[in-house]
C-alpha cells in the first residue's frame, strides 16, 4: 500500500483562507492534509528567519514541505545574464528550502531554444551542478527537475530520469498533468510508477497533479479543477493502492486544498490513507 503525502501548491484559499505561509502550515494540518509546496512564483522573497519559522511549524504540525522555485528560470537562454539570474534563483530557493527543512526544490529548468535538446541537456547539467555547489546545502535538499508539458521545454521523462542518474542531488518531479499534455492526452500511471521503482527503488517520489486545458486541438499547460479529468485522478489512486511506494501528491489545481481534499477522498475509497 502506498505511503502518501498530500497537500496544496501554496496557501489554502478556498476551504479555509490562510493569511501567510506560516499560517498555511497549520491550516493544512487542520484540513487533514500532510504536505504543502511553498511557492516562490515571482521570486524568492522569504527571509531565512521566516523560512526557519515555517520549518518549525512544519515539524510541529507534521507537514512535509517542498519548494517551487520561481518560474522565471531558463538555464539554456542565449543571454548570459538570464542564465546567471536563473541560477541565482535556484541557489536562493535551495537556501530557503534548507532553512525550512523542505526536502526538494522543484525547478522548470529551461527551454531548448537554439541549443536544441542535447546541448541544452549538458547546459542544464552544468548550471545545476554550479547552483548546488554555490548553495552550500550539502546532502539535505534535492533539486527536483520537473517533467514539463511543452515539447520545446527541457523536461521529458527521459531527460529528467537521466539527469537524476548522473547527478546525485537531482530527483525527477513527475507532474501528471504535464506528462498527460506532453504525450498528447495519453497517460499510463502504472507504467510510470513501475518505471520509477525500477530506476529509483524506494526513493520518495515527488509529484504534482492537476487537470489541464484542451485548446486548439491540443492539451496545454493551463491548470483546471480535477473534476475536468484531463487526466483523471481515480486511475492513479487505484494504481497507488496496488503498490508499496512513498509518494507526495501536490495539488496544483486552481482549487488548491479543495481539490486536494477531493483527491484524499478518492484515495480513501481505494483504501489508501495519508501517512
The level-1 CATH class: Alpha Beta
Biggest sheet strand order reads 1-10-7-6-5-4-3-2
| CATH architectural group | Alpha-Beta Barrel
**Overall SS class:** alpha/beta
Name the features.
alpha/beta; TIM Barrel; 275 residues; globular
What does this structure look like?
It is a single chain. The chain has 9 helices and 10 strands. Strand 5, helix 5 (157-166) and strand 6 (170-175) form a beta-alpha-beta unit. It is 42% helix and 20% strand. The chain starts with a strand and ends in a 6-residue tail after the last helix. The protein is an alpha/beta fold. Helix 2 packs across helix 3 (80-100). The strands form 2 sheets. It has an 8-stranded parallel β-sheet. Strands 8-9 form a two-stranded antiparallel ribbon. The chain has helices at 21-30, 48-61, 80-100, 116-135, 157-166, 176-182, 189-200, 234-241, 256-269; strands spanning 3-8, 35-39, 64-68, 104-107, 142-146, 170-175, 205-209, 211-215, 218-224, 246-251. It has a single domain (3-269), classed as Alpha-Beta Barrel (TIM Barrel), CATH 3.20.20.
Helices and strands in order:
Elements: E1 3-8, H1 21-30, E2 35-39, H2 48-61, E3 64-68, H3 80-100, E4 104-107, H4 116-135, E5 142-146, H5 157-166, E6 170-175, H6 176-182, H7 189-200, E7 205-209, E8 211-215, E9 218-224, H8 234-241, E10 246-251, H9 256-269
Parallel strand pairs: 1-10, 2-3, 3-4, 4-5, 5-6, 6-7, 7-10
Antiparallel strand pairs: 8-9
Helix pairs in contact: 1-2, 2-3, 3-4
Amino acid at each position: 500500500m502506498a505511503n502518501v503525502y498530500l497537500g496544496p501548491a501554496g496557501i489554502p484559499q478556498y476551504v479555509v483562507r490562510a493569511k501567510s505561509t506560516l499560517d498555511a502550515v497549520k491550516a493544512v494540518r487542520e484540513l487533514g492534509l500532510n504536505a504543502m509546496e511553498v511557492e516562490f512564483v515571482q521570486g524568492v522573497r522569504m527571509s531565512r528567519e521566516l523560512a526557519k519559522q515555517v520549518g518549525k511549524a512544519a515539524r510541529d504540525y507534521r507537514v512535509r514541505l517542498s519548494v517551487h522555485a520561481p518560474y522565471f528560470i531558463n538555464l539554456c537562454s542565449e543571454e548570459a545574464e538570464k542564465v546567471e539570474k536563473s541560477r541565482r534563483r535556484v541557489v536562493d530557493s535551495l537556501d530557503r528550502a534548507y532553512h525550512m527543512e523542505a526536502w526538494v526544490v522543484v525547478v522548470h529548468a529551461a527551454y531548448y531554444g537554439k541549443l536544441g535538446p542535447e546541448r541544452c541537456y549538458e547546459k542544464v547539467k552544468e548550471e545545476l551542478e554550479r547552483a548546488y555547489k554555490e548553495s552550500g546545502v550539502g546532502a539535505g535538499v534535492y533539486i527536483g527537475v520537473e517533467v514539463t508539458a511543452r515539447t520545446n521545454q527541457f523536461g521529458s521523462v527521459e531527460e529528467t530520469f537521466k539527469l537524476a542518474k548522473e547527478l546525485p542531488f537531482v530527483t525527477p518531479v513527475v507532474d501528471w498533468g504535464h506528462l498527460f499534455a506532453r504525450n498528447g492526452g495519453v497517460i499510463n500511471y502504472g507504467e510510470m510508477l513501475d518505471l520509477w521503482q525500477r530506476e529509483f527503488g524506494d526513493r520518495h517520489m515527488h509529484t504534482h497533479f492537476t487537470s489541464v486545458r484542451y485548446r486548439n486541438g491540443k492539451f496545454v499547460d493551463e491548470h483546471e479543477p480535477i473534476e475536468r479529468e484531463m487526466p483523471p485522478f481515480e486511475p492513479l489512486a487505484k494504481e497507488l493502492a496496488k503498490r508499496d511506494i512513498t509518494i507526495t501528491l501536490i495539488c496544483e489545481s486552481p482549487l488548491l486544498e479543495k481539490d486536494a481534499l477531493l483527491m484524499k477522498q478518492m484515495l480513501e475509497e481505494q483504501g489508501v490513507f495519508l501517512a
